[in-house]
Amino acid sequence: MPLKPRQINRFTLFKLPSAYFCGVRVKSISEVKCVTSVKYKWINQNPFRSMFWAVQGMAAELSTGALVMSCIRDSNRTISMLVVNNSATFLKKATGRINFTCEDGLLIKQAIKKTIETREGQTCRMKAKGLNSEGITVSVFEFEWTIKMKN
Fold this sequence. Notes:
The protein is an alpha+beta fold. The protein has a single domain, classed as Thiol Ester Dehydrase, Chain A (Roll). 35% of the residues lie in helices and 34% in strands. The protein is built from four helices and six strands; from the N terminus they run ααββαββαββ. The chain has helices at residues 5-15, 17-21, 53-75, 105-118; strands spanning 25-29, 34-39, 79-90, 97-102, 122-131, 137-149. Strand 5 (122-131) and strand 6 (137-149) form a beta hairpin. Helix 3 packs across helix 4 (105-118). The longest helix is centred in the middle third of the chain and has 23 residues, at 53-75.
């Protein structure tokens, strides 16, 4: 059973306070999909009257990372997780509310299953797409997560 958005949002308050205070929130999560949201406002702006790229990155990373955390929790194993690489493409100014969606839950679930079976570390590339309220893509982030069994 996936984590609940409320649990993850409370986690961000204490463990990722910059994301929390910039307004990054998990809106929904399932076994295969996570949606995060952040609204353009004074605290997360850049000098060009749009959302700072790093705030978009926090929301995008959380949409992928929440799926990783949820799958690790469901495995009942002690597994470490770390971003080893990321890339981003910015297509339009980010203003208003931006929703980031990652639909790679099955990919990370397979990677976790393989790391449990082989006890070898695995990597998984996960994509988060940011859409504005009009459904237009403003940015696309890719994160390469590495997972490893702890002894």
